[in-house]
Write a structure and sequence with these properties.
alpha+beta; about 35% strand; about 220 residues; Ribosomal Protein S5, domain 2; 2 domains; elongated; five-stranded antiparallel β-sheet; Alpha-Beta Plaits
């Protein structure tokens, strides 16, 4: 099955705010498996074990196949559901969000809790930043020395990232290209070399591409 692009959190991060003396801390973390999401939750619960609540949600899988959330003692539907709804609205997956609350003595009511936990999820996602993971092909390419400068000049304007150069009998480049750009890039490279360069496709993986390089 062909891989499809998906959005996720770029890095772990957190942010916080206070409403009616209650302190809310939103934490986010990229996670590729449910085990990683549960480990992040356990870490947050241990770190903030003195907090009143550690409510959470996580979504796993490029197609968002696994979705879990918990109100952690808050009234039903006022914490976990708002967190996961914010995540779904932002379109992120393979990540977990935990919103920690230190109760300040003033009740917020159901509507106030929904707004607070929604805000906690939003600031967590914003702190982590959202990126796109693109299906990406990795290639090994042997370049004859007489063609090296021509190929280097060609690669400067192509949507590829050169990961390694190995100088031996020829120069072996390891590079990656988004699968969306793959066919056109390979055709141009073969044409440039008049068929003397035969790219070897090593694997297809997910990689985060710089924003300016995204289609």
């Amino acid at each position: 099955m062909a891989l499809k692009p998906y959005k996720t959190l770029i890095e772990r991060a957190s942010d916080q705010f206070v409403v009616n003396k209650s302190r809310f801390i939103g934490h986010g973390c990229p996670c590729e498996t449910e085990e990683q999401a549960l480990a992040f939750l356990a870490e947050m619960r241990a770190k903030y074990k003195d907090a009143t609540h550690n409510c959470y949600a996580y979504i796993i899988g490029p197609n968002m196949g696994i979705m879990r959330y918990s109100d952690d003692g808050e009234p039903g539907g006022t914490a976990g559901m708002p967190i996961i709804e914010v995540m779904k609205a932002r379109g992120v997956t393979n990540c977990a969000v935990v919103v920690t609350r230190y109760f300040g003595g003033i009740l917020l009511g159901a509507g106030g809790l929904v707004r607070a936990y929604s805000q906690g999820a939003a600031i967590a996602i914003n702190a982590c930043r959202v990126g796109v993971m693109h299906p990406t092909a990795r290639y090994m390419i042997d370049i004859p020395y007489p063609m090296l400068s021509r190929v280097d000049y060609f690669l400067r304007d192509e949507p590829v990232i050169v990961e390694e150069r190995d100088f031996g009998a020829a120069v072996t480049y390891t590079l990656v290209v988004r699968t969306a750009d793959e066919e056109g890039f390979i055709a141009k490279l073969v044409d440039l070399s008049e068929g003397r360069i035969e790219p070897l496709r090593a694997e297809e993986v997910y990689l985060a591409w710089p924003e300016e390089a995204q289609p």
